[in-house]
Amino acid sequence: QVRLVESGGGLVQAGGSLRLSCAASGMIFSINAMGWYRQAPGKQRELVAAIISGGSTNYEDSVKGRFTISRDNAKNTMYLQMNSLKPEDTAVYYCNADLSLDWGTRRNVYWGQGTQVTVSS
Known about the structure:
The chain is an all-beta fold. The protein is built from no helices and eleven strands. The strands form two sheets. Strands 2, 4, 5, 6, 9, 10 and 11 form a seven-stranded mixed sheet that branches. A four-stranded antiparallel sheet has the order 1-3-8-7, with no helix packed on it.
């Protein structure tokens, strides 16, 4: 059974930093892509940053230059380093992973349980 476990959320003052982690476990053949989404109260879930198997990354415009996504392939773990945090970054952050399973014969998308990030002004 595949699981995505997030950690690292919390409360921080504006201008501060947090580092989120997402560890994927289970019978994973390969990771095609991973990403972080966030959802603020009353708003739709949005993509914050993503990283594909080759290492290419992309970011939502409002976080460019402040957030950095990275991955440790050996640990099947993804990170999101968030610097210069703003109150508008407050949201539940979700880990997302596009995984190949069963020796590459099957592919599925998984979500983590979410971790709360709150930035106070």
